[in-house]
Design a protein that fits this description.
Layout lengths: L1 H5 L1 H40 L11 H11 L18 E3 L5 E3 L11 E20 L2 E10 L11 E5 L8 E7 L7 E6 L4 E5 L5 E13 L4 E6 L4 E4 L2 E8 L3 E5 L5 E6 L13 E6 L3
Antiparallel strand pairs: 1-2, 3-4, 3-9, 4-5, 6-7, 7-8, 9-10, 11-12, 12-13, 13-14, 14-15
C-alpha cells in the first residue's frame, strides 16, 4: 500500500499513457471501418436501381400541332352563302331552280341514249367480163365527218386493187363464186373475211340524244363537233363513247358527262348524269 501511495501519480500517468497508446493503435482500424461504411453508403446511393418514369402524355400537344399544320378553311360559299348568295333562275316549266353549277350549264345535261355508228361492207355482186373478174361492194360509213359521205357508196375491185377504205387481198374458192373474200382495212391494217350472205361491220363511233331540263331543250343524233347552246354559252361536243359525252367550253375546259341510266342505246328516258371536270392543259 505504501508503494501505491508513494507512486500513485506514476501509476495513474502510466495507465493514461497506456490508454492513449491503445487509442493510437485502434484509431487506424476505426478509421478504415468508418471509411468503408461511407464508401458503401455512397455506392449504394449511386448504383441502386431506379424505377423509370412513366411516359409523358403528349396527346394534347400533338393534337394542337396537327391543328396548326392544317389550318381551318373558311367556306362562305355553298351551303352557307354568307357573302355569295345563291342566284335563282326560272326554268322553262316556270319553276325556280338554284343557278349553280350543278343545276345549270354542262352539269345539268342528261344523256338520253347513245347510238353506235358502223362501218358496213357487203359484197353486192360479181361481174365477170373480158377484162377480168370484179367484185361489187356496198360501203356505208355512218361515222363520216361529212353528211354526204354517210350514204352507201358502190366500189368495184379486182384482186389486189383497193379504194380509200380497203384492199381486196384474195378470194377463197372459185373466182366467179368465192366462198370468202379477204379484205385488208387500210386504217387499221388488219384483214377481215367477207362472205356473200354476211356483211362485215364494226363500230366506228357513237351519236347521242341529249336533254337540258333547265331550258327544256333536247338534241337528237348529235355527233362529235356539234355545238350545244346552254344557258347563254356554247359547248362543243369533242368526244362521244358508249356511255360518255365530253363537252368543251370556249375557254377549253372540258366536262365529261357519264351515262348512269339503263344500257346505252335502249332509248330509255332522261336520267341524271355524273360529271368530271377536266381543266385545260
Amino acid at each position: 500500500m505504501d508503494f501505491i501511495k508513494k507512486h500513485y501519480e506514476k501509476i495513474v500517468l502510466g495507465l493514461v499513457l497506456l490508454g492513449l497508446f491503445g487509442a493510437v493503435i485502434a484509431l487506424p482500424i476505426i478509421k478504415g471501418t468508418e471509411d468503408q461504411k461511407m464508401k458503401d453508403i455512397l455506392t449504394g446511393q449511386v448504383t441502386r436501381k431506379v424505377q423509370p418514369l412513366p411516359p409523358l402524355d403528349l396527346s394534347t400537344q400533338e393534337l394542337v400541332l396537327q391543328r396548326v399544320a392544317t389550318p381551318p378553311v373558311l367556306n362562305f360559299g355553298a351551303p352557307n352563302k354568307l357573302f355569295n348568295p345563291m342566284p335563282w333562275q326560272r326554268a322553262a316549266d316556270g319553276r325556280l331552280i338554284q343557278a349553280d353549277s350543278t343545276n345549270v350549264g354542262p352539269r345539268a345535261v342528261q344523256i338520253i341514249k347513245t347510238t353506235p355508228l358502223y362501218l358496213i361492207i357487203s359484197n353486192q355482186s360479181i361481174s365477170v367480163s373480158d377484162s377480168g373478174t370484179h367484185y361489187i361492194f356496198n360501203i356505208t360509213k355512218q361515222n363520216a365527218a361529212k353528211a354526204s359521205e354517210r350514204s352507201t357508196s358502190v366500189s368495184a375491185l379486182g384482186v389486189g386493187a383497193k379504194n380509200n377504205t380497203f384492199e381486196l387481198r384474195a378470194v377463197v374458192g372459185p373466182t366467179n363464186d368465192p366462198a370468202t373474200l379477204i379484205l385488208r382495212l387500210l386504217d387499221t391494217d388488219t384483214d377481215v373475211k367477207l362472205t356473200r350472205d354476211k356483211a362485215y361491220q364494226r363500230i366506228d363511233g357513237f351519236m347521242a340524244d341529249l336533254k337540258y331540263p333547265p331550258e327544256n331543250r333536247t338534241w337528237s343524233n348529235e355527233r362529235v363537233g356539234a355545238t350545244l347552246h346552254l344557258n347563254g354559252e356554247d359547248y362543243k361536243i369533242v368526244s362521244i363513247s358508249e356511255n360518255e359525252v365530253v363537252l368543251q367550253a370556249p375557254n377549253q375546259k372540258k366536262w365529261t358527262i357519264k351515262y348512269s341510266g339503263p344500257a346505252p342505246g335502249t332509248g330509255a328516258g332522261p336520267v341524271s348524269t355524273s360529271l368530271t371536270h377536266t381543266p385545260p392543259p
